[in-house]
Amino acid sequence: MMKWLQSLGRSLMLPVAVLPAAAILAGIGNWILGFSDDNIVGSFLLTAGTSILDNLGLLFAVGIAIGLSKDKHGAAALSGLVGFLVVTNLISTDSVASLQGIDVDAVNAAFEQNDNVFIGIITGVISASMYNRFSGVKLPDALAFFSGKRLAPIMSAAAMVVLAAVLYFVWPVVYSGLVAFGESISSLGAVGAGLYGFFNRLLIPTGLHHALNSVFWFDVAGIDDIGKFLSGEGEKGITGMYQAGFFPIMMFGLPAAALAMYHTAKTSRKKTAASLMLAAAIAAFFTGVTEPLEFSFMFLAPALYVVHALLTGLSLFVAATFQWTSGFGFSAGFVDYTLSFTNPLANQPIMLVVQGLVFAVIYYFLFRFLIVKFNFKTPGREEGDEIENTEEVEGTTVPSEGDKTAVMANTIYEGLGGDENVTSVDYCTTRLRVEVKDMDKVDEGKIKSTGVPGTNVVGTHNIQVIVGTSVQFVADEIEKLRK
């Protein structure tokens, strides 16, 4: 179950990765419209950005269908597309009104929200299952044309008829429950924002934080914080409250924590710690991708990670209390911050920088004190020489010429046990997700000798290797090595 949930979390990243395009287009459009409300170019770019945001349900259906399919074939994407179109049309307000024999205006409001991310996720999961089950089926000669991968979209459409029949009765109840959950948190105001920020970080190790994010960032429960902010159609000082508090953490707090970990590293390992911390801090500041930095200490010092989660919740609480709001299309980094600065819903965004500087001081001194006080084994303070001693693989991990990514992948694959031990390799935004036959054959020291932030054993046969934003290229090289 955990493996499947992690695969779902990874699959969610494919449609989420489209959001930077929406952010750039909508951000530039809003920036231009900030100077002139009727500027054609600004309106054109803003419309281009919102066209992505208005179809997130469809994007999730297609992205998840691909991500959960066994071979990532385009037919799986087609299955997701067909499935989404069928189910959303069958439970549309017009269709429901016709089935119930009532006017469209009298239809339950839940059916007006049937093309959301939640429906997209369900559709993507079922469509992927249909593809995995039927893409290899061979029909009798008379129907041979519809065999194999051509059969998958057909079966997906058939499955959606059944799903639509179920949703006809269940969706109004589910929708009401989701709205109630979202409203129960959102009704808490700044406290709700703080609770969301805290649990958002706590779920990062499992990769299940995306499920929580979908409630507040997208339109699953009607909050749609990202969509409303980027489109400029929300309430100023309120819309963006589930995003703004992340900027002080990603841009300032975590980089300051990285500095504290560098300063507390053992003298003999400061160079190694510096290279890791600098790269992770830059990624966090500019792009808002924090997993390389967070994974570098969350398993070495879990108590420290809980402190980080609490500080994140506090940051969202503070920003929401003072109604300092800003938003992002991808993550709370400098790029998204500057793009959203002129958004009409941005409210005193410069104060997020001031807040960030304060949190940087808190993070640095609190992390430094806790690391020294409790002797937390953060990067550069581990016992033994697993990370520092790389002489055995120096010729491969630091080549004078050639593709360092390929060499890095080769060393990681050897550390995982190679073909004899590895059964599957996948990846998400920053992590390799690997299934192995025998965890005892995994050499974590060898894997860490490549300079990766860390590893995470998540089950008897599953291990994650935290690589960073270049994970796709490492995964591609490992696939070349597999026989």
Summarize the structure in words.
- With 483 residues, this protein is mainly alpha-helical.
- The chain is built from 21 helices and 4 strands.
- A 4-stranded antiparallel sheet has the order 1-2-4-3.
- A hairpin with a 4-residue loop joins strand 3 (454-457) and strand 4.
- It is globular.
- The two termini are 27 Å apart.
- Mean pLDDT is 84; it is low at 384-402.
Distance between the termini: 27 Å
Structural class: mainly alpha
Number of helices: 21
CA gyration radius, whole angstroms: 24 Å
Biggest pleated sheet: 4 strands, antiparallel
Low-confidence runs (pLDDT<50, min 5 residues)? 384-402
Work out the number of β strands.
Answer: 4
- Overall geometry comes to globular
Mean pLDDT: 84
| Beta-strand proportion | under 5%
Percentage of residues in helical conformation? 55-70%
Across the major sheet, the strand order is 1-2-4-3
H/E topology pattern = HHHHHHHHHHHHHHHHHHHEEHEEH
Structural key phrases:
21 helices; about 475 residues; globular; mainly alpha; about 60% helix
Strand-helix topology:
Blueprint: H1 2-16, H2 19-33, H3 40-53, H4 56-68, H5 74-90, H6 93-100, H7 117-134, H8 151-186, H9 190-202, H10 209-217, H11 225-231, H12 246-263, H13 270-287, H14 291-294, H15 302-321, H16 334-340, H17 350-374, H18 394-397, H19 404-416, E1 422-427, E2 431-436, H20 444-448, E3 454-457, E4 462-466, H21 471-481
Antiparallel strand pairs: 1-2, 2-4, 3-4
Helix pairs in contact: 1-4, 2-3, 4-5, 4-7, 5-7, 5-8, 7-8, 9-10, 9-15, 12-13, 12-15, 12-17, 15-17, 19-21
